[in-house]
Design a protein that fits this description.
Oligomer: single chain
Shape: globular
Number of domains: 1
Radius of gyration: 13 Å
Order of helices and strands: HHHH
C-alpha cells in the first residue's frame, strides 16, 4: 500500500507541475482538469512499468505516447501548443520515471 500512496503523491506533484503554468496562462478549466488527470494517472502507471530501460526513458516514452491522442485533438485548433505539450510530456514523464525508481524502486 505504501507504494500506491507514493505513486499517488508522484502523480499529484506531476499534475500540479503541469497545471500551474496553465492556470497562470488562464487556459480553459477543462483543459487544466484534463492535464492534471493525465499526469496523475501516469504517476500511478509509470513507476510500475519495467521495460528493462532506464526509468526516465520508460517514463518519457509512456508519457509521450499517452499524450499523442490529446495532441492530435488539439492540433487543428492550436498548432503552437504542440511544442509545450511535447516538452512537458517528455520532462514530466522522465521525472515520474525517476521519482518512481527512487521512491518505489
Amino acid at each position: 500500500m505504501n507504494n500506491f500512496i507514493t505513486a499517488v503523491i508522484i502523480g499529484l506533484v506531476a499534475g500540479l507541475v503541469d497545471v500551474i503554468p496553465m492556470i497562470i496562462m488562464k487556459l480553459d478549466k477543462i483543459a487544466n482538469i484534463s492535464a492534471f488527470a493525465h499526469y496523475f494517472v501516469l504517476g500511478l502507471i509509470i513507476p510500475f512499468v519495467n521495460w528493462d530501460l532506464s526509468p526516465w526513458i520508460t517514463g518519457m516514452i509512456i508519457s509521450f505516447l499517452s499524450a499523442l491522442p490529446v495532441m492530435i485533438l488539439v492540433f487543428p485548433k492550436d498548432k503552437k501548443s504542440l511544442i509545450p505539450m511535447t516538452i512537458f510530456s517528455i520532462v514530466l514523464g522522465a521525472g515520474i520515471g525517476l521519482a518512481g525508481a527512487r521512491f518505489i524502486g
